[in-house]
Amino acid sequence: MIKKKEKKLTKIKYLYDNREYIILNKCPHCNLDIHPTLENTHHFENKNFHIHALSFVCPSCRKDYFVINHSEKLSNAQNQYILTIPEYTFRNETLIQNTSKKFQNLYTQSVQADLHGHDDLAFFGYIKSLEVLVKDIAIIEHPDSEDTVLFSSLIQCLEKFHSTNIHLFSKKLLEVLKNDYLHYQKGPEFSTFTELVKDCIEYFILYLELLQKTFSLNDKQSGNWK
Ligand SMILES: [Zn+2]
Fold first, then answer.
1. Its domain of life (predicted)?
2. Which of 129, 146, 220, 225 is the most buried if burial means most Cβ atoms within 10 Å?
């Protein structure tokens, strides 16, 4: 059976002592969606900034981690997320483990850029991650066409090797993928483009899972498993 869709990694608010902190919704060790237990807080400050280091323990795997926030001191500004120690990886996420190391590398870096608010790098990182994923899948399905796949652009690869999938794409997503340069003109809609590309990556990760199940089923039918 296909694994149930895993919840996206996202920033959430954590209320403690009448103050809102920004943390991730998943444990950086076991990747489970958790509500962590705050063990300790540490604060550092100078004339301008306030640094908040929160020490959490995961209720599931019982491992400790830190989340660092900062805020400007002289205003009532909200806390901003800086980082989680250790950094979040997809080491224990089964669906991501099905993908190539090349994809995992690029995708993890894109997610880190996204979490740190480097929106431009995140957008291009996600587009390139999608390209690697789509090409990896096309090569699994069409091993004889590896050279054609590798030398095609993302959209050429989608049109030639994923024509059934591409019919499911929204008009907006196709526009973003076909004209990633033209669409890269930051406006209020920019973040929705990034979200569309992220959804598309998730779709192909699930598709890859289905494909791998189908392959192992065929192997069993043809007796290769014996
Ligand atoms: Zn955990």
1. Bacteria
2. 129
